[in-house]
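Exercise 7.
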Amino acid sequence: MNLLPFSSPLEYEHLVACETPGEAHWFVFRGDELLVEMGPTVAPSDDLRVKARPAWAKLPLHKNHNWLGSGAARTLYLGRLAGMQCWAAELPGGAEAPAGMAWAGLRSLFTVLDDAQFALAGRIAPELESREEPALRHDSSTNALIRRYRRLRDDGA
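Solution. The predicted structure, written as tokens, is:
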């Protein structure tokens, strides 16, 4: 079954709190860029809007929740995707990518990043970045998560 790129992944379980943090995929954003481990670039891209795409891309996978150090403006538990915990983090605009990783726009990661991870990143990112209060059209637990994140973000700003 083919799903639209930003539809909710079938194996995604929306959760508001993490009882026992463990190994997790991290959706780390710097503005509209996502932190990923990338393979070599393939030129030319099949999309005229993207000059070159990486051959593959993976989200950071860490057991230690302190791997970003004190650089994260905020972190947020998203839930589980295919049984794996997922966290989001926001880094400031000038943040450097950790060794072995790079910042990439979502468009360049289309068809390169895992489909479910891409869908989750694309669904959540615009709402996390927004300073306004757009209408939330997700299930109630995801809406609660986004509202909680916004409150934390705005209290820290």
